[in-house]
Amino acid sequence: MNIAVVCGGISPERNVSLVGGLATANALEHNGHTVRIIDPAFGSDSIRTKDQILVNPSELPSSDILQLPKQRLLDCVQSSAFDGIDKAFLLIHGTNGEDGIFQALLEAKGIPYTGSKVMSSALAMNKLASKVMFSAVGIQTPIWIAAVKSKGHLDNPATIQDILEEIPGSIVIKPNDQGSTLGMSILHNPISETIYNALQLAGEYSDIVLIEEFIEGRELTVAVLGDEALPIIEIEPEGGFYDYKRKYTKGFTEYYCPADLSEDISSFVQNLAISAHHALGCTAYSRVDFRLNEDNVPYCLEVNTIPGFSSTSLVPMAAKEAGIDFNRLCEMIIELS
Ligand SMILES: Nc1ncnc2c1ncn2[C@@H]1O[C@H](COP(=O)(O)OP(=O)(O)O)[C@@H](O)[C@H]1O
Ligand SMILES: [Mg+2]
Q: Is the pLDDT score of 142 beyond 90?
């Protein structure tokens, strides 16, 4: 097949995406496909060589890239970049890649692509909408309050009072639709002032801010491939918070796969992951994030429809544990999409 590996993009996770794109391009070539690498950040000139995408994944991209207009995506799809392509392998994380917009452009162009369709991509990117869907089908998620920006401000005093009354203990304040923990705060002894500041910070990243109960406990993530869950990964970040640096810098986080859990809890969490994937209508694969509290109760945080995909990322790690190597994983995603 002629496959376009679409990576990079206008997203804070651009560099991570490029690393995944390179690994995937190599795997697909190994599998006998003809591969073209496309980075929509370059608009109508988006075809890239492997040499052009060598980057450091733990670095944030420069701010001029993040300020590029969305028009670049349209220019990219309208150009000849996708001519002769049988399927696009989508690997852009976060906004302008994972949120359904690029998927919609490819639908309009008639190019088949990997992973979730427009609606599920948009739902999964919207943490509030996802939590409503989880709750509707009985998947436990941390209790929450949503604060909505009006006239550019999030400083609704009722919200702070509601938070202090309705969410006891530690809280997490996060933008509704931004990945990679940017704009997120964890407050262990929240008071009006720290809540206010955290709301403002999150409000810089999104028009809706979520305030959640903090789930003390363990961090688990489950890859779903087809209709099956892969072995669970436990993530143990140094210092407890899985932020941008710890996510993408070697040595800052320990990973255990399979996670050390009883068979009962393992299969319960794996089934929850499959339910969360289906609740949002996801396709082919995804990675579902959980917190497991001290009583072994799992809380679903979110579904990632385009999870990290370098050869050392979590989904490939779980696949390997299930006996599926990276080359085979790439092939399966193409077949399942
Ligand atoms: N309610 C919560 N309780 C405890 N930890 C949380 C909670 N929400 C988020 N976190 C921590 O922050 C990380 C990122 O949160 P998440 O909702 O998955 O957003 P994203 O990965 O899109 O930035 C989680 O992996 C977890 O470590
Ligand atoms: Mg997450």
A: yes
Q: How far apart are CA 187 and CA 246, in angstroms?
A: 19
Active-site residue, 246 included: no
Percent of the chain exceeding pLDDT 70 equals 93
Please tell me whether residues 261 and 179 are part of one structural domain.
no
User: Is 70 exceeded by the pLDDT of residue 288?
Assistant: yes
Rounded CA-CA distance 141/249 in Å is 28
Q: From residue 315, how far is each of 66, 77, 244 by CA, in Å?
A: 26, 28, 18
pLDDT tens-digit readout, 40-80 = 999 999 999 999 887 777 777 777 888 899 999 999 999 99
Does residue 155 register a pLDDT over 60?
no
Pocket lining: 302 vs ligand 1, CB cutoff 6 Å: yes
Whether 221 and 309 map to the same domain: the answer is: yes
Q: How far is the CA of 88 from the centre of ligand 1 (A)?
A: 29
In this prediction, residues 1-21 reach a mean pLDDT of 94
In whole angstroms, give the CA distance from residue 58 to residue 13: 9
> Which CATH number goes with the domain that contains 204?
3.30.1490.20
Query: Is-contact 164 123, C-beta < 8 A?
Result: no
The phi and psi torsions of 109 (rounded to 5 degrees) equal -80, -15
E strand or H helix at 11, and its extent?
A: none
Confirm whether 223 is domain-assigned: yes
User: Which two structure tokens, joined as six digits, stand for 306?
Assistant: 């385009």
- Tell me the best of 126, 301, 306, 313 to mutate to test the pocket of ligand 1, counting ligand atoms within 8 Å of each CB and taking the most: 301
Residues contacting residue 158 through CB under 8 Å, at least 6 positions apart = none
- Higher per-residue pLDDT: 179 or 109: 109
Q: Torsion angle, CA of 52/178/191/154, rounded to 10 degrees?
A: 120
Q: Does 171 lie in the same domain as 262?
A: no
Q: What are phi and psi of 50, to 5 degrees?
A: -60, -40
Distance CA 160, CA 299 (A): 24
Nearest to 10 by CA among 51, 45, 61: 61
